[in-house]
Amino acid sequence: xxxxxxxxxxxxxxxxxxxxxxxxxxxxxxxxxxxxxxxxxxxxxxxxxxxxxxxxxxxxxxxxxxxxxxxxxxxxxxxxxxxxxxxxxxxxxxxxxxxxxxxxxxxxxxxxxxxxxxxxxxxxxxxxxxxxxxxxxxxxxxxxxxxxxxxxxxxxxxxxxxxxxxxxxxxxxxxxxxxxxxxxxxxxxxxxxxxxxxxxxxxxxxxxxx
Amino acid sequence: xxxxxxxxxxxxxxxxxxxxxxxxxxxxxxxxxxxxxxxxxxxxxxxxxxxxxxxxxxxxxxxxxxxxxxxxxxxxxxxxxxxxxxxxxxxxxxxxxxxxxxxxxxxxxxxxxxxxxxxxxxxxxxxxxxxxxxxxxxxxxxxxxxxxxxxxxxxxxxxxxxxxxxxxxxxxxxxxxxxxxxxxxxxxxxxxxxxxxxxxxxxxxxxxxxxxxxxxxxxxxxxxxxxxxxxxxxxxxxxxxxxxxxxxxxxxxxxxxxxxxxxxxxxxxxxxxxxxxxxxx
Lengths: 210, 281
Prior knowledge:
The structure holds two protein chains of two kinds.
Chain A: H1 3-16, H2 24-60, H3 65-74, H4 89-106, H5 108-117, H6 133-152, H7 162-205
Helix pairs in contact in A: 1-2, 1-7, 6-7
Chain B: H1 3-13, H2 27-48, H3 60-75, E1 79-84, H4 91-110, E2 114-118, H5 121-137, E3 149-151, H6 156-169, E4 174-180, H7 184-194, E5 198-203, H8 209-215, E6 218-221, H9 228-233, H10 236-264, H11 274-279
Helix pairs in contact in B: 2-10, 3-4, 4-5, 6-7, 7-8
């Protein structure tokens, strides 16, 4: 008897039992899942990050500057000692600063690319110079939806202005149409994931389908 | 060809190292960043000096956050707040931090439990600090419960299964989700609905927004989550930063209009669109 598929099948059913209501079987599967995932992450981090950094980089290759980062990281644990808890704010502020700097430095480049790509000519033509009606309509729609969706996100311009009001309203519709398309696309992907699980339950576990 | 020729050719073509401030093709991005920073700085300075700045329009999704906490208070049940899966290098996580301060202050004032769950250890530590500070500012440091700020698991679906359990076991009355979400978005939204919680969600993830729109009571679409902190707190300095960003947005809007006009008038006789050249310099 194969224990892997049996355990996998039973745990799948335990998780799916949430659809009925939260129950002890779900709770067992949930706690097992969290415990295994967290311990797995701990082992992976220890083996692939902490151990090689200390053994190879610091002790073998003499990169003692890495130890500074380790000390900074360890300072986070001072939050568990009320008298020195304030020290933990230093590594945290370092992380917030790093995050804000990272976001600020990497955000404008893709924005520039997007602005550039929006400079489109409405009239699309083939190599012979004949007008391509479908592509031209597409280009005009793209432009209208882009500027109206941008108008929707104006927070300081009053909507009483009819141009902004109607523009933002059209933008909202454009966004909803886009989200509708994304919804359908993702639902299809989710159905395929669900089918994969059913295949596991009825194929790998119960051997009812080949 | 003998590989040695490739090496020789590569060595011959190797460009001379040059000192300079700008990375080629990133100059436009640099000046855009500079412009946006300057506009935000000007607006913050005006707000600090109590000078007039434009007001932020009504955003229904943000008003709903106060309503959700109020409902949880009336029912005597907790509020759950999730930042999704984003780390500290996600701008959405900063929107979460900003909103969390306001939510935690309200929860402290109304004596309502706030359960904050995490999958990212750095975000968890920062959020814990924000909540602790908010309770202190609200004059209720005794009400702060560190056990309600929970690090569940670094793995997406393990985290999701934990949140689902919390929804039902703790009987949350309000579920707020602001940050960057992946496939767990619909799982949370559906489970929150099943638990009967009022749900306010906001993300910039276009793949997950449709699920929030369909399953939550109020949804903050994209950019709206960044206005949260200023809108909720009415703090003039924070409002100044949002107004500054909005001015930059309007400038980009004008740039797009201008660039499209130039493109449609055949670049006014020039070979290339001068705005494109300027931006991609």
